[in-house]
Request: fold
Amino acid sequence: MGLYTKLPDDIQEVDVIIAGGGATGCVVASRLADADPALSILVIESGINNYNDPMVVHPAYFYSHIAPGAKYALTYQGPKSEHLAGRQASLPIGHILGGGSSVNMVLYSRAQRSDYEAWKIPGWSADEMLAYMNKTETYHGPDPEGRHGHDGPIQISPSKFRSHRLMDDFMAAMNRVGYPELEDINKMGPTNGAMRTMSYIDPEGRRQDTAHMYLHPRLQDGKHPNLHVLVESQVERVLIEDQKAVGVVYRPNPLYQPGGSSRTVKAKRMVIMNCGALGTPPVLERSGVGDSKILERAGVPLKADVPGVGHDYEDHQGVMYVYKSNLTPEETLDNFNALRVDHDVLIRNKDTLLGWNSVDIQAKLRPTDSEVAGLGQEFQEIWNRDFKDIPDKPMMIISPVGCFPGDPSTVSGQHFTLVGWSLYPSSRGHIHITGPGIDDSLDFDPGTLSDPRGTDVKQHVWMYKKQLEIARRMEVFGGIAFDLPPFPSGSKAASIEASGPVADIKDIEYTAEDDKVLEQWVREHANSIWHPMATCKMAPKEKNGVVDPTLSVYGIQGLKIADISILPSNIGCNICNTSLAIAEKAADIFIQELGLRK
Reply:
């Protein structure tokens, strides 16, 4: 038992290897260890240990994790794209024990009932997945319908710190544009409104990541002697013999341990991939599992022809709209992010600000019929096909963020940001290897805004207009702090006063020419919202599936995947909650297959 930066020489073989100690890997390892403490388990994580790290346990440090050069994140970049006006999409992901759960925004956000039902996979229905969601959590909010868990390892709480004026003002503005306040948009029912957020924090404001809530307690309790965790180590490939996964080859991560050499460790019973939507496909392909043509070009001998590996990447696409405000320094994170307050003093005093993620409201919204019609015939067709008859399916999530989300040294004063993101874009991307080695470059293209009909851009046109009408109706609104689209002279869309709240507000009128300008502006500003998924889908192989409903990789015995890459299709939420439910479900599947006692 132990947590290592170098694996002891006497650990040459274990029962189960878990490749990736991220959000899902920590859950799966812990549940397997509970099921049978005699089962030897090795978790291999490429990032560092997160234990009691202040930048992990205090959610206020979130913005440091998405900043350039972030210590606990890896940033993937796509190619320069005509769909993004020549820009490169960028995507930071967690690179630390606990993965995204250690660095994300801690927003508690569940998928819709219709998301799970759309999968049409036995054993993975909405009600079955709800049971696993509840298994993870202890919910400290109202639950009159009994839709939440109350005795799980992860606590779900409202933040003790709130920016009350920003929160109340945004909710009032939502009401003014026609959306209601809802008690709970996470009960897997109809939703077209806003709620005051719950977060992955305990009542004292400490982050509830899966390493601290699942893995570390078992490493420390003396009851799980065969649970081993190796950090700062990268899995290069899975060893496959006679179509069976029998181990992995890994190396010390050169970011932390330069000059190390590769080592093999064997798995007697199972290898479980938990490297995430961007990490799992390259490991599979370097192991010989993937599209035969891609592997041939990369110089990797084929073990199993599974064309869906790395195919049909999905994400959420968003824009951050920054506004000046009349908020005080005590009502935003701007001073905290700009280091204008002493962080050591805040930590020593257990200041409640440290437990705040800067987001007090999340709204899931649908456009009106007239707004849909105004986006054109092609968009109307997409709406009729994918949304119209599914009333619980939102098109956008929007939240007020209590700070300037970029480099705080470039601005002064206090800001708020409206973050709007599309939930079911039609664009698709891919991630593949280009060579057999772990250091060979990846062919990653998220495909942001690449759908040929342009309907993803149309969604953002609607979101731009909607968020602006909300902002203009907020009392804290102090003017626009982003570059307005270059609307033509005389356009009513260009005549926005940027000096303070607007009295007697009427909706801005846009012409067809304005919409064209907006479409180009969207291409110049939209980016990933950091929710990669669906690169190793749970689906039939002939439909680009990579795993079956038992999470077994097609063509390879004893090789499983248990991370967000297995999603069959997109989901209308932040992805942490669904990741945890997948992990709990996966653990039950593996426990049954391994014949372990519960």
The two ends are 20 Å apart (CA to CA). The chain is about 25% helix and 20% strand. The longest strand covers residues 263-273. The mean pLDDT is 95.
